[in-house]
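Tutorial, part two.
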Amino acid sequence: MTKQFLVMAALSGVVFATAHEARADGPDSVRRHNSLPEDVAVRGRKLLVAHRFEATPLFESSINADFQHTIGGGLKLEYHFSDMLSFGIVGVASTELHTALVDHITDTLTDTPMGRVPSKAQFLDHLNSMPLHGAAYVSLTPWYGKLAAFSQAYVAFDFYFQAGVSFATLKTDCPTTVCTDMYPGVSHMSGMDTVPPDLNPNNDPPLNDGQRVGLYLGGGIHVFLNDFLALDLSVRDYAFSDNPSGADYNADLYVGTNAQTNSDDNRFLHHLFFGAGISIMLPTSVKRTP
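Running the prediction step on this input gives:
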């Protein structure tokens, strides 16, 4: 009897409390609220990039290049409008190193051309270089957090993604003693040009001189060493029209645009680079969220 009385009393208390809460939620009631819905997700978080200017001296190297590795140094300048959105530019001055493929090919060539087989000078002088390249872009930083090393050292990091416009300067040094055909693919009676065309692409001028504009995509990570210094690691893709070999790519027996087929020896290529630098955030003092 006592147990039944206690159970009935408990149930009555629950019903009474529920009814009282329902009356409190009426149209004329005023409920007490805390500030949690309006608070930031993380209190006292350091705003490591928001409203700061970023200057990054950097080193960059091409990834999986066909004929020439491009390595160089440059500078990235970026302004962060918020934690997530920023705008920046990057420019890199570079030099070239032959890949293993080029060394292998030159070992099979001689100093004198043999029919359609180029000489060493004809092959090497057609290869292009990229003395300058860069991009202007918009950057999005959707993720940030902390990394723990050996459960002792904790550093902040963020991941970013970039998209924009790329630019590059291409250059080829092929002297007239090697590139002797000044009118490739056409008949012309002048100097060493022949009638009909010689149909030998090895002595045609390459297509690599000049400026290029294309697309740019990139992504990377900041690892913050302190409040204003960060290790910046990135992968960048500069995509534009290019012909790295400077030679006859479409097999029409000359280097240039074929007027009949409208086929060009240039093609739209992706130039992948790995970059590493030290980012300096200005001002050096950092703000915190409430």
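Residues 27 and 79 are 49 Å apart (CA to CA). In part three we will examine how such features are distributed along the chain.
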